[in-house]
Predict the 3D structure of the following.
Amino acid sequence: MSDMDDEMEDGSGVVKKFMFLNRKAPHGTVYALEGLEVVLITAAFDQDVSMVFTDDGVYQLMKGVDSKGIEIKDFSKTYRALDGYDIEKLYVDQASMDARGLSEDDLIVDVTVLPVAEMASLMAEQDVVISF
Amino acid sequence: MQFGILVNEGPYSHQASDSAYLFARNAIEKGHQVPRVFFYHDGVYNASRLATPPQDDRNVGARWSKLAADHGVDLVVCVAAAQRRGITDGVLGDNFRISGLGQLVEMGIQYDRLVTFGD
């Protein structure tokens, strides 16, 4: 086992279901950017990670975002790299997409779009829900 | 029950840190354990000992320090969030320490509940 593995394991061998609930637009506040850091670290701890995008959080996955004008780093490529961290469970709230006139074709990654009732049962299955 | 607490907002401009503190103190008083509180986003500002609120107001940072002294609560400030905001070892209040996000993930893995305070 490498030093990196030693650092990332908490020794318990426990795998819990972590859901990250992304509710905020990618820019305007720092929540989306700093939230992604927690997602990546959680995956490094070999936990069972899901990400949900709801409310303005769906804008985090929208194609064609250009943050040059606000002089803030574009971190949208991180979402495309998530599968490299074995983060493949990406869910989007149907109603949030509809309310913003978005469809799956407008998004930069493959997602599962869920109606609110299914989202609720998915949430109920989780051990830990962290909301950003 | 063991509670982990995540504080995502700075002091005074937002009630999150107050609510988290009251939750933690009352949980402990009722016989639960709060082994660790993790400060993220602007929550890292709670750790600054440079804050000097008016005498007739609560001192949010000092209140956390005292809770830690009285009950052994581990007050952990995220290093990446702290560096962005100028929170360094030199300005940390008593009983706060700077560490990595792994400390937050550990709370989720090890404790019965992880409770988030913030927007």
